[in-house]
Prior knowledge:
17 strands, single chain, Alpha-Beta Plaits
Amino acid sequence: MDAVKVGLLGLGTVGGGTATVLIRNAEEIQARLGRAIQISHIAGLDIASQKIVDPVTTKLTEDAFEVVNDPEVEIVVELIGGYTLAKDLVMKAIENGKHVVTANKALIATHGSEILKAAAEQGVSVSYEAAVAGGIPIIKAMREGLAGNQIQWIAGIINGTGNFILTEMRDKGRDFADVLKEAQELGYAEADPTFDVEGIDAAHKLTILASLAFGIELQFEKTYTEGISKITTEDVNYAEELGYRIKHLGITRKTDKGIELRVHPTLIPEKRLIANVDGVMNAVLVHGDAVGPTLYYGAGAGAEPTASAVVADIIDTVRTIDAPLHHKVPLLGFQDNAMRDTPVLPIDDVETAYYLRMEAEDNPGVLAEVSDTFAKNSISIEAVIQKEPATGENSVHLIMLTQKCVESNMNRAIAAVESLSSVQGDVVRIRMEHLD
């Protein structure tokens, strides 16, 4: 059979890794497929200086639309990132009847519904394994391996930069700003680290996972997002003392009221496997009704780990390239007519437990006053630690763990506690999950 011709958009970190893996493992891939995959056209910046592919056998251009309009290209691989140009290129490729593979989580999370609808109308596929958790095959696992389950909840460490920062803060007692600077020097964080440390990157990925899990539309705008920039070494240490670790989790859960969709720092018991995922590694914990909890662990970024997922999507596309779309695994795991309109819950309606830290006067009756304020707002205290005051000081840290309560009740309780004359400054609040 003739080789399937692939066009690459982007020859940066992931694009270069994808080309390298396709060339290096060409014989292995052909043995598995029964036909070859040929990189026939590549678009990239400063493309003439590239050293990965042979310019004699591969067309090179700086105009990405040349690739998507090339009649010989059957699969377009979008690896340039961003929203605007990437969307235009993908939509044009679909219009031209080409299959698409992308690693662009922002594109899928924000424009995925429109893109996937266009693909279905044209009878082509859009694959996006590399958009979530890099080299971890979590999309395939959820769409196929767990297809017989009702997914109950997902909790994931799905941003390596944030996980690296929290790991260093815990293991070495460093503060956030210091570790962030090192992460930028190591190339783990961008010069503008907002997407990573404020949870936007993780929210893109969680949006995709929630749609796969629960058959809902992609709804990035409804994902509650909170970053880690306010986490202190004090809270990291207190969490450790209480038998917990702080991780920046993406959590989605199906409840009787709707779907929880949230990214935020979270205390989880230190004995949980996911609590011991450190450094830049990613992990996704999926709980199905039949299988129970399953954990998927691996490199969440990097040239070849991400390329591993991109190439796997190319291979899957080639295997079914001539099959009708209705014979393939649905793009979001559910048939279009089975997509559900289950509401996404606002964060005020989410129920969880909490870690709270406040500074209060070291006087008799203060703890009772604080506890009574929480009780009046329907919040039960599970445990309390009162630290000794520093020499010459008349204030102490109170650390409380609560039982589960609705977020709106906690908001009212915190406002009431902060208004007490015996409490100084703001109450620090970090949500807790036991992941049972």
